[in-house]
Write a structure and sequence with these properties.
heterodimer; A: 320 residues; alpha/beta; seven-stranded mixed β-sheet
Chain lengths: 320, 297
């Protein structure tokens, strides 16, 4: 029997109940992630990509309802257990490093605490390991920074600290929720390079959620395009970003501005569907230039293949 | 060259703007610490080395006005008012300090647990807290002092703790409700930290600051409450020196011997001012444990 995939998500559904209304954030998502692979999840705001990641990480608020199964290394685990177990080694890097670090805890103390819990290393050995981790994430003057508070660091430095904290867990899988969104472009590039290098060194798998197609194309092996709580297309990054099959992916790629003055940026007409209405039919149908009447009855399947486009009228993929 | 100068000017301007409130905090802090240290030093020295007898009457020297020998004058029994004020400080400050500290610990624990657990635990703990807040302090004080017997310091202490903790429970509950939903608490969970560690290491340090700032004010209020109970004859019994008792005794002679009430009163005010200055200054120093910039965002 083949080894089970590292992460196996089947028909994941997330709903938020707020003030008597239900928001359908994730509506049936399936995917596998192999060891050492990077999956990029792209989509616009409200496409459910962050809710997806938070569901896997077990960080949904109490008002959320989660259905479907998430298996880690073949074990059916409730998300809480994945993160609670010291040896399960999933770590998370978040979008906003400013709010995800305890404001009254020194950087060094935070690292030592995590090392103590996850690796049972204490005292001066933990301190040395913490300095080593900070050096590994290329934080300048790592030893001096051990006694800094988060508010004394810049955004990029804080994100490096968060990555160091994640590394302290020796993760087999890293969940990254828009880790570069809050950073300026040059810092973004450096943090991406860092993540790529660390992934090469440790062989960890990564789920990388972003709305930035360029970033995803840079970092990921495989890309999943999220729309209205579905994965509408998945494929290898190099192919999908050049020649998308789903009309939504195509619209998304065409809306990237370039420096070429001849190139016109085109926005996708219309707006994403109201997530408070239970979805039926293809969610992209109202905005889709290739829509036909049968699209309105087409239910997006929770497809777990590594290459598919959930569309009745896909664009023909050009071989690259 | 001019660019260098400009840059330096700009830097100076920036430093100037940030240093204005900080230097005021520093002045307040220095005044507060100096006054407080002087008062505490006097109070503890007199007590530890048993300098003089605060209760020994000296009928040859009744109602002596303030002089070098008797800085605060003497009272109707010829006792040195300054000496009595210092001895009284030991009791007043000591009981107030202990009671405030105990109240912070109890209130903080109850508030944090209530807010972190939510649900039934929260409801029960907060209803108890509400009941305690609704209870009039004097009646509570009467009840407790009656049980322990008048004059027992332990009764005063319990009365102050019983009165003090609900405020801290309320403050820390509110703060915990905010802090428990902060991203860094979620992040701590994803790093695999247990609930007790998250509470103690991540929630409490972010909640304790407003409690401590409030406790500086509470320290002074508690001294006034000790004074009140003693004035009503429930607290410290004569002839033991106590600030409230000294001032109450002096009231009778306010027109003939103004110093008996007035000077100890000023002493109490100075103590209160020094504590409050210190609290203010600590709250404003950037990067300090109580400081504003160490907080959220």
């Amino acid at each position: 029997m083949a080894e089970p995939p590292l992460l196996e998500v089947r028909d994941l559904r997330v709903r938020f109940r707020t003030g008597g209304r239900t928001v359908f954030a994730v509506n049936g998502v399936s995917f596998d992630l192999e060891r050492g692979q990077t999956l990029g999840v792209v989509g616009e705001s409200g496409s459910g990509k962050s809710a997806m990641l938070r569901a896997i990480a077990g960080l949904l608020p109490a008002s959320a309802e989660m259905l479907g199964s998430v298996k880690f290394a073949g074990y059916p685990l409730k998300a809480e257990e994945i993160l609670g177990a010291p040896d399960a080694s999933v770590a998370t890097v978040f979008q906003d490093p400013a709010t995800h670090l305890n404001p009254v805890q020194r950087i060094g103390d935070a690292l030592c605490e995590t090392l103590e819990v996850r690796r049972e290393s204490t005292g001066s050995s933990a301190k040395e390991e913490a300095v080593a981790l900070l050096e590994r994430v290329e934080l300048p003057r790592a030893r001096e920074r051990m006694t800094s508070y988060p508010h004394q660091l810049s955004g990029g430095m804080r994100q490096r600290v968060m990555i160091a904290l994640a590394l302290a867990c020796e993760p087999v899988m890293l969940l990254a929720d828009e880790p570069t969104t809050a950073l300026d472009v040059t810092t973004q590039r450096k943090v991406l390079m860092l993540l790529k290098r660390l992934q090469r060194e440790t062989g960890m798998a990564m789920v990388f959620v972003s709305h930035d197609l360029a970033v995803v194309g840079d970092v990921c092996d495989s890309v999943a395009v999220a729309y209205a709580g579905h994965i509408v297309e998945r494929g290898p990054a190099a192919e999908l970003l050049v020649s998308p099959a789903h009309p939504y992916s195509e619209g998304l790629i065409r809306s990237i501005p370039t420096l070429d003055p001849e190139c016109k940026v085109s926005a996708i007409g219309g707006a994403p569907p109201d997530m408070r209405i239970e979805p039926s039919g293809c969610p992209f149908a109202p905005r889709c230039p290739r829509c036909t009447p049968d699209c309105l009855d087409f239910a997006v399947p929770a497809n777990d293949e590594t290459e598919f486009a959930a569309c009745l009228h896909p664009l023909i993929r050009v071989a690259t | 060259m001019s660019a260098v100068l400009e840059a330096r000017d700009l830097e100076a301007a920036v430093v100037d703007r940030t240093s204005a409130p900080r230097s005021r905090a520093r002045v307040e802090g220095i005044i507060g610490i100096t006054l407080l240290a002087a008062i505490l030093l006097g109070v503890t020295m007199v007590r530890i080395f048993q300098i003089g007898d605060p209760n020994a009457p000296n009928l040859g020297e009744v109602f002596a006005s303030p002089s070098l020998e008797h800085p605060f004058g003497t009272d109707s029994l010829g006792r040195d008012v300054f000496l009595r004020t210092l001895y009284a400080g030991w009791i007043d400050i000591g009981v107030s300090l202990l009671a405030t500290a105990t109240a912070v610990v109890i209130g903080l624990t109850i508030g944090v647990v209530a807010a972190y657990k939510r649900g039934a635990v929260d409801s029960v703990l907060m209803r108890i807290t509400d009941a305690m807040i609704a209870f009039p302090f004097l009646i509570l004080g009467f009840a407790i002092v009656t049980i322990t017997g008048p004059g027992a310091l332990i009764g005063l202490y319990f009365a102050l703790v019983a009165k003090g903790w609900p405020a801290y429970a309320r403050i820390s509950r509110g703060e915990t409700l905010v802090v428990r939903e902060q991203d860094y608490v979620h992040a701590a969970r994803t790093l695999g930290l247990g609930p007790v560690r998250i509470l103690v290491r991540h929630v409490v340090p972010n909640v304790v600051r407003p409690c401590l700032v409030f406790s500086f004010a509470d320290l002074i209020v508690n001294i006034l409450l000790i004074t009140t109970l003693s004035y009503l004859g429930l607290g410290i019994q004569p002839p033991t020196a106590e600030w409230g008792a000294i001032i109450a005794e002096g009231q009778t002679y306010i027109f003939t011997a103004w110093w008996i009430s007035t000077l100890p009163g000023i002493f109490v005010v100075l103590f209160g001012v020094s504590v409050s200055f210190l609290g203010e200054a600590l709250g404003r120093v950037e990067g300090s444990w109580l400081g504003a910039a160490g907080g959220r965002g």
